[in-house]
Amino acid sequence: MTMPIRPPARLELQHRNYLLTRTQRWALWAMVTLLLVLVAGVVGITLFTLPVEKRSGEVLLESFLAKIASKPLDAALNSMMLLVLALQVVYMRLAHRNERLILTPDGIEYRSPLPRALEVLHPGWSLAWGQIHTATLMGTKLVRGPQALALELESGMRKVKVIPCLWANPTSDQPHSPWAAFFNQRNANIVDSIARVEESELLRYMAVAAPQLQIKHRAQDVGFALEKNRQALVVVVGFFLLLFYALGDSFFSGYEVYADEPPYSFFVALGLLAALVTGLWMRRSEVPMAESLFVSMLFGAALGAAAYPVALRVNALTDQDGLRRYTYQLTPELTLKPLAEGLPVLAFPRYPEYWMQFKRDSIHEFELRRGGLSFYQLNIQPVNMAMREYYEKQNNN
Fold it and tell me: Cα-flanking dihedrals φ and ψ of residue 19, to 5°?
């Protein structure tokens, strides 16, 4: 198919990954249905393993509400994360149907999939052909194949990037599976990739509408130097500092641990928020999408991991009373129940043999502190010493 001498008055291109055949749509819905069936199966098996007296809806509802009341912050964070994830998947799936790349004899326009109130996160843009000074085809090391080649259009103060092979004409291009490009790019070489890009709707339209634009090829010079971008360099250095701190703190300062279950939901939410903020910050600093996503996710994971020991340190520093001794009673389930109200139940499930040597209902003392973050942490050093002595004796015998 060749482009006519005169370009069409208006050509609207859609994102190729959202052009699906009827069979592919049915396959997508089949996968969603299978996931729902698996979730329902897991819930059913869980209910079946419960005692008969606990299978009623009323008992389950009371247990669920009691768990929420015991940890309202975790419940709120989990609910918000699930809601945001569901809304993002559903909304972006619907919104991308409205994402467009519009070509006319006068210029090129990109329409963002986001509503006007959120468009600042992923703004649209438009350029007249006469405004574009240079057009450069470049690649990235993180992805191979035609999908890795981006066309950079520079117009004075503005610079935008478009991946030509991701945009298709819905009236003429054949729909394909979104996974096809992923599996085909393994064997793709740079020559074939450039040839595919030159046959894309965007470049063929540009060749007719803007013949004065000579596209420069920098696809051989792939990759983005993170160390040459100040924002990216800050995020990379921050990642290594957070990683070293998270590992070092556990080795050198791990004398106090969470007495109750740590707030993992908060750490995950903090990491995801950090990844989102750093990713947007790097994107606004012209760091490519693949590098921004990869580095920001690493930074978010490192921040979430570092938040685990940081919370312990802050809680200890804001403690006014210091470590205090509390009395606990060993239960038949080998957990330790506090004799005072408001204290967390202690459990050491990895060392049942140690606790089995004691009589049930035996009394034990532990050192705990409750700092400014309002959670209890346990001085684990005396417990570890006692357990080490026990297991050394067992091995010697």
Answer: -100, 100
d(CA 224, CA 215): 20
Cα–Cα distance for residue pair 339/335, rounded to 1 Å: 13
pLDDT at position 331: 93
Phi/psi of residue 333, each to 5°?
-85, 5
Supply the pLDDT for residue 221. 44
Q: Is the dihedral of CA 122, 127, 129, 131 positive or negative?
A: negative
pLDDT in tens, 220-239: 544 455 666 788 888 889 99
Residue of 81 and 312 predicted with greater confidence: 312
- Largest Cα–Cα distance in the chain? 93
Indicate the range of 59-63, 245-249, 314-318 predicted with least confidence.
59-63
Q: Position 214: which residue type? A: Q
Strand partners, 134: 154
* Helix 72-95, helix 57-70: angle, nearest 10: 100
Walk me through the domains of the chain, giving residue ranges and CATH numbers: 11-18+97-223 (2.30.29), 227-317 (no CATH), 324-396 (no CATH)
CA-CA distance, 21 to 321, in Å (whole number)?
67
Find the helix or strand (DSSP H, E) in which 152 lies.
strand 150-155
pLDDT at 206 over 60: yes
Contact 312, 257 (CB under 8 A): yes
Strand 363-370 and strand 376-379: the pairing is antiparallel
List, as one string, the DSSP characters of 193-209: HHHHHHTSHHHHHHHHH
Residue 367's pLDDT is what?
Answer: 94
DSSP for 254-271 reads: TTEEESS---HHHHHHHH
What length does the chain have? 397
Q: Indicate left, alpha or beta for 376 from its phi (over 0: left) and psi (-120 to 50: alpha).
A: beta
Choice between 206 and 8, residue whose per-residue pLDDT is larger:
206
